[in-house]
Amino acid sequence: MVTSMTGYGSAEEAVGEERLNIEMKSVNHRFLEIQFQLPAALRAREEEARKIVNDKVARGKVEIIVTHTGGLGRKKSVRTDWDLVQQYLQEARHFQHLDAFDGKLSLSDFLLDPNIVSIHEETTENDEAARAFMRALETASRRLTEMRSEEGQLLLEDVNSRLQHISQSLEALHEHIPRVQKRYQERLEKRMKALAENVDEERLLTEVAAFAEKSDVTEELVRLKSHVKQFRETLADTGPIGRKLDFITQEMSREVNTIGAKGNDQELSKLVIEIKSALEKVKEQVQNIE
Description:
- This protein has 290 residues and is of the alpha+beta class.
- It has 3 domains: 7-72 and 125-148, 2-Layer Sandwich (Ribosomal Protein S5, domain 2), CATH 3.30.230; 74-123, no CATH class; 151-286, no CATH class.
- It contains 8 helices and 6 strands; from the N terminus they run βββαββααβααααα.
- The strands form 2 sheets. A 4-stranded mixed β-sheet has the order 1-2-4-3.
- The longest helix is centred in the middle third of the chain and has 69 residues, at 127-195.
- It is elongated.
- Keywords: Endonuclease, Hydrolase, Nuclease.
- This is TIGR00255 family protein.
- It comes from Natribacillus halophilus.
- Belongs to the YicC/YloC family.
- Its cofactor is a divalent metal cation.
């Protein structure tokens, strides 16, 4: 089954009067890479969340962004260092005995000093938020995989169309090769007649046989047809198939290049170019397949 590595899914859940939102995006990647952006109150649930995504996605780079309204487990508190306050007051009394200062300490002198009064933020795990997060993650993951499957069907249709074109060109190549050899024999015979009154049939046949052996692409055509067949069979496999398809397209390219190098005919070269063009499109689409 063909699944694209590109997809998007989102979900929203209520946490009391607050809202928790999840966005999931996936793009092409050689392996599976999952990145989370979680609020502090949900970071303890990352491993559990990672397992959920692992069950749904086999390959690709997946980015999961969780946002929320309200505090979601965050609490702020004021802390005062009373020991330091006592020391300040004691030192202040010493200064007053010097009669060098006529100023008075005010409440703001203490409240605005960050060494004495500070605001601390604590994050506590919120069970209700954690359950909402897991529900939203399941929903967003399902929507992501649904989109990846839909994209995969579009990829499958396009790839099958390209493979059909390649198969037709291969058949045309197979039919054209004997005509190439025949034309070469006719040209060679004409050239030999122009140089000598009597054509040496034995030499002519030797030259034609040498040309046929040198330009023979039968083995390459057989292997290329086999690769196309294997490619189609792989498209029907379950699980991740992208890497295998990538390997098969590389083998197909190798055979096509060999056929082009052996070819010594305009029509043959034209067919090879058409196959290469279709194969490049297949390669591009394979990069998107999981």
